[in-house]
Amino acid sequence: MRVRWRDRSKVERVEWQTRVTLRAVNWMFFLAWSVSGLAGSLLHSTVPYVLGGSLLAVNLVQCLVGNRHALSALDQYLGRGRVPRSLTVASGALALVALGVLALLTVTDSVRDGLIAMPLVFAPMPFGCAYALTVPLRAFVRQAAVAIVVAVAVAAAVGTSPGGLVVVALLLTLSTVLALLTFRCSAWSLSVMWDSEHSREVEARLAVAEERLRFGRDLHDVMGRNLSVVALKSELAVQLARRGRTEDAVAQMTEVQRIAQESQREVREVVRGYREADLGAELAGAKGVLGAAGIECTVTGSAAGLPDEAQSALGWVVREASTNVLRHGDAKACRVELVTGAEEVVLTVENDGAGAGTGGGQGSGLTGLRERLAAVAGTLEAGEVRAGVFRVVAKVPVAPADVRESAEVVR
What we know:
- The protein has helices spanning about 10-40, 45-75, 85-105, 115-120, 125-130, 135-155, 160-240, 245-275, 280-290, 310-330, 365-375, 400-410; strands at about 295-300, 335-340, 345-350, 380-385, 390-395.
- It is α+β, with helices and mostly antiparallel strands.
- A hairpin with a 3-residue loop joins strand 2 and strand 3 (about 345-350).
- Helix 9 packs parallel to helix 10.
C-alpha cells in the first residue's frame, strides 16, 4: 500500500531519500566518469570503438545490477534480510569484466593517457559500494587492499610502467574510499536514525507499562484491604444470621455497605488522578517534546489559578494537539498561547504544518477533545486558517461559578 509523503515519519522520509540517492549515484558516476573519460581518451579507429562500446555496455549492466545489489545490501545492513548470493556474484563478475576491458584498451593502445583513469575509478564502484554494506568495515578494507594488490600485479604483468602502477593503485584506492563515503556512511546514518526511532518507541511502551503498573499498585493499595474486610464481615454476617443474631448480622452488613461506599470514593479518586492532565505540566512537556523534534515552540500564558476541571480539559487539548503536530505534519514552528479572561480561558495551538494540528481536523482525537471540553461547558474549533497554517482553539468558561456547577451535574 502506497503511503502519502505527509503520513510518513521523518526517518521514513530520510530512508526514501537515501534509497533514491543510492539509485542515482552509480548512474551519475557512470555519466561523469566512465562516459566522459572514455570519450576524451578513446582513439578514432575500429578496435578502440569496439572495445569502448563493449566497456560502456558492461557499465550499463553494472548500473542496472548494481542498483538492485545496493538496495538489497541496504536492507541487509538494516537487518531486514540477506543479499542473494547470485546478485553479489553477478555484480562482482561484471566489475572484473569491466576491468578486463580496460586492460585490453590499454594493451592495444586504444586510448590516450589521462582521462582513461576515470573509467578505471568507476569500474569497481557498482560492486564495491554495495559490497561495503554486506561485510564488516575491517573485512572490507582488508579485502579491498588485497584486490588492489592483485590489480596492480595484473597491470604489471601486461607491461604497465612503474608510474602507471602507482596511478592504478591510487585510483583503485580512491574508488574504495568513495564506496565507503557514499554508501557506508549513508547507511550508517540511516541505521542510527532507525535505532533512535526504535528507542523512542521502546521508551514510550515502557512508560505506558510503568503507568499501568502504578495504576495497578494504587488500585491494589486502595481495594486490597477493603475487599478483605468486606469478605470477612460478610462471612461473619452469614454466621450471625444462621445463629439467629439478626441485629448483629445487620450491623455487620451496614459496616460492609459503608466500606463499599468508601471504596467507591477512593477508586474514583485514583481514576480521577490517573485521567486528569495537569495543564502546566502539559505546556512545559509540549515545548520540550516539540523542541527536541526540531520544531520551534513558543508558549505564552500561565495555568496558575485555573480550576482543576478546566486545567484537565485544556491539558488534554495541549497533549493531543502537540502529539498530532509531530505525527501528522511537517511543521517548523508551533505557537501555544493561553489567555485567561474575566469569564473564560482561551487556549490556542497554531503550527505551520498544514493539516498537522488534529490529523486533518477529523477523527476520534478531535471528537474526544470536544467531549472533554463539553464536560466543562467548553468549545473547540480546529481548521486551516490560512495556507499552511493549522490552528486549534479551545475555550473554557471560568466564571460565573454556576456554569461549572451545571456542567458538573450534566457530567
